[in-house]
Amino acid sequence: MASAAGALRAVDFEGSRRRDRPRNDPAGGSPPSHGSVAGNAARGASVPCRPRHARRCCSCGNRFVSSRRGGRHTGGDRAEATVRTITAVTALCLTLVRSVHAETVRTLADCIELALRHHPALQASSARARAAQQRIRQAAAPFLPQVDATYSANRRNTSVAARTGTTLGTATQTFNFFNTGVSFSQLLFDFGQTLHAIRAAQANADAAAADLASQREQVIFGVKQAYFALLTAQQLHQVAEEA
Questions:
Q1: What is the rounded distance in angstroms from the CA atom of residue 63 to the CA atom of residue 51?
Q2: What kind and span of H or E run contains 30?
Q3: Which of 151, 157, 155 is nearest to 179 (CA)?
Q4: What's the pTM?
Q5: How far, in Å, CA of 10 to CA of 30, rounded?
Q6: What's the DSSP call for residue 179?
Q7: 37: part of which helix (H) or strand (E)?
Q8: Contact between 186 and 145 (Cβ < 8 Å)
């Protein structure tokens, strides 16, 4: 009887131990399930890890990053996202620059025309040339006939006796006085003064015209030099990109 009671107690104790163990414990009473971690580890298969905010897997110890929204990214992911953003922005900027350049492509003749039309130094030289040309006519003005006209009017309060030259009395009266005159003159000879003034004005006009032509050539040369320098830089940039 004592041995039978001891055997029953041993069976009950072993059953209680089996009931207290986890279901997935290989040492327990139930065998490991087909999809459990322990079962996979026992069969030698790879253990899948469920993402959980950069925690370590309980069985394999691998580290992973959560893919849920709001999860933290590691330093490598942040660097990769930054590189992707910079690449996208750079590509967008290059596209915009190329589109703007494609819309504003101009030939050498167009650039020269714009420079001749809007260059400030060329505009100043052109204004000086026009002013010098007008001074020639100003210098020749003394050779033209001169016509002067004058007209004056005034009122005077004087005595009748003084006005008529009689002795009719001392009474005074207001009188109106008018004076009109016209004069005509023509220069015949001034010992070459006007003639030399005209020649000097003509020489100044020629100098201003030559300065305008020189300024025009300088502007054209500067435009051509800048235009071909830009083409050279673009070709070098293209060669560098292809290399």
A1: 9
A2: none
A3: 151
A4: 0.46
A5: 19
A6: E
A7: helix 37-43
A8: yes
